[in-house]
């Protein structure tokens, strides 16, 4: 006869749990990681106290039960100082946390996994990316659980991995009725990097232009220093495709400006490889902007008209042509449907409850 496994509750609801959360940036206006600030506000409702260690600190406004410590990147300190500051803060604050959640950066677990184990701290890692290595596997070996949002993530293969909601604040990310959507508009919003595939979108826009279709495309995003030349190449290619009057590159946006930009466009295109499952997919959806994405995870949730095979320029241009031809009424109806999907599957509220549940049971 099989014995039913018993769930072990590590902390009761009455005495609470204290968490150490480690991430790259705490800045409510950061163009890439601004969402982490909203995560902390939501997570603070579920934990007695959260101690945050970040590599870089900017503008933030968190609840009283959240303490934020920076490793000093904003002050220009050296990498060696980052490491010494990390060890100093993590050890000094050891009595103020029961468990550790590392967001995306496995390096911190490689640095301190053994120490946390000796201190009796449970370790959890959030890592969602199609790539990984033996170092990822080593970091995961220290973890009680690993979290990701995509079943195509490198970490999805690990037995202790739990697939989680993406975590979109649907109260912030919603359609702004006072903003008129630009007719036949296409939006790209991401860090400008080869992995985000804006070059594929440019080629698809070139195909639409050849067919004489009416559209306007805005590509928002800033490159990391190593990708500045890539952006310059994209701008050159835009001119070669005769898209100067139809497509424009614009700098990355503060996180708080996202809802306004989504609300000003009819179609959002995401080209990231499966395994990344960018939050922008569901930010756009929450703002009732139609989403066209190559993600296999997204394809499992939506009608085929909203997906295309990765890097398939002809398929992408064909799908864009269909969406551009929709009536205003059809677009509005589909926009409300896709927002409902974002709320049901990937809201920040749902993520907050899941994080508390997963960290307090095993």
Description:
By secondary structure, this protein is an alpha/beta fold. The chain has two domains: 18-167 and 348-360, Glycogen Phosphorylase B (Rossmann fold); 185-346, Glycogen Phosphorylase B (Rossmann fold, 3-Layer(aba) Sandwich), CATH 3.40.50. The chain has twelve helices and twelve strands. The protein has helices at 35-43, 79-92, 107-118, 134-141, 198-210, 228-240, 258-263, 279-286, 296-299, 313-324, 328-346, 348-360; strands spanning 18-26, 49-57, 66-70, 99-103, 122-126, 145-148, 161-163, 185-189, 216-220, 247-250, 267-270, 290-293. Strands 3-2-1-4-5-6-7 form a seven-stranded parallel sheet, with helices on both faces. Strand 1, helix 1 and strand 2 (49-57) form a beta-alpha-beta unit. Helix 1 (35-43) packs across helix 12 (348-360), helix 5 packs across helix 10 (313-324) and helix 8 (279-286) crosses helix 11 (328-346). The two termini are 23 Å apart. Mean pLDDT is 93; it is low at 1-15. Pfam families: Glycos_transf_1. GO terms for molecular function: glycosyltransferase activity. Residues 185-339 form the Glycosyl transferase family domain. This is Glycosyl transferase family 1 domain-containing protein. It comes from Candidatus Taylorbacteria bacterium RIFCSPHIGHO2_02_FULL_46_13.
Strand order of the largest sheet: 3-2-1-4-5-6-7
If classified by CATH, what would the architecture of the largest domain be? 3-Layer(aba) Sandwich
What is the H/E order? EHEEHEHEHEEEHEHEHEHEHHHH
Please tell me the total number of domains: 2
Find the CATH topology of the largest domain: Rossmann fold
Give the biggest sheet. 7 strands, parallel
Structural class: alpha/beta
**Percent of residues in β-strands:** 15-25%
The residue-averaged pLDDT reads 93
């Amino acid at each position: 006869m099989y014995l039913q496994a018993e769930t072990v509750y590590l902390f009761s609801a009455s005495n609470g749990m204290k968490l150490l959360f480690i991430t790259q940036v705490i800045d409510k206006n950061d163009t890439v990681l601004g969402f982490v600030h909203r995560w902390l506000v939501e997570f603070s409702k579920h934990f007695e106290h959260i101690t945050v260690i970040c590599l870089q600190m900017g503008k933030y406004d968190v609840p009283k039960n959240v303490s934020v410590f920076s490793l000093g990147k904003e002050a220009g300190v050296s990498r060696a100082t980052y490491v010494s500051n990390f060890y100093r803060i993590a050890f000094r604050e050891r009595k103020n946390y029961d468990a550790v959640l590392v967001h995306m950066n496995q390096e911190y677990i490689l640095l301190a996994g053994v120490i946390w184990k000796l201190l009796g701290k449970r370790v959890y890692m959030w890592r969602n990316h199609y790539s990984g290595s033996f170092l990822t596997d080593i970091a995961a070996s220290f973890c009680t659980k690993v979290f990701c949002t995509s079943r195509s993530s490198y970490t999805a293969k690990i037995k202790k991995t739990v697939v989680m909601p993406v975590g979109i604040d649907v109260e912030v990310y919603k359609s702004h009725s006072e903003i008129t959507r630009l007719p036949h508009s296409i939006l790209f919003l991401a860090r400008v990097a080869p992995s985000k595939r804006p070059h594929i979108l440019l080629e698809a826009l070139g195909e639409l232009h050849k067919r004489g279709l009416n559209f306007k495309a805005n590509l928002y995003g800033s490159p990391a220093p190593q990708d500045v030349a890539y952006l310059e190449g994209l701008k050159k290619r835009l001119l070669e495709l005769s898209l100067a009057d139809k497509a424009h590159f614009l700098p990355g946006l503060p996180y708080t400006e996202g809802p306004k930009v989504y609300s000003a466009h009819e179609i959002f295109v995401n080209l990231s490889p499966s395994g990344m499952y960018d939050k922008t997919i569901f930010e756009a959806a929450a703002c009732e902007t139609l989403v066209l994405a190559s993600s296999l995870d997204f394809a499992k949730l939506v009608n085929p008209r909203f997906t295309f095979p990765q890097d398939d320029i002809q398929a992408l241009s064909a799908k864009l042509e269909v969406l551009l031809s929709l009536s205003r009424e059809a677009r509005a109806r589909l926009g409300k449907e896709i927002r409902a999907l974002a709320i049901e599957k990937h809201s920040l509220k749902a993520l907050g409850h899941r994080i508390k549940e997963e960290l307090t049971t095993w």
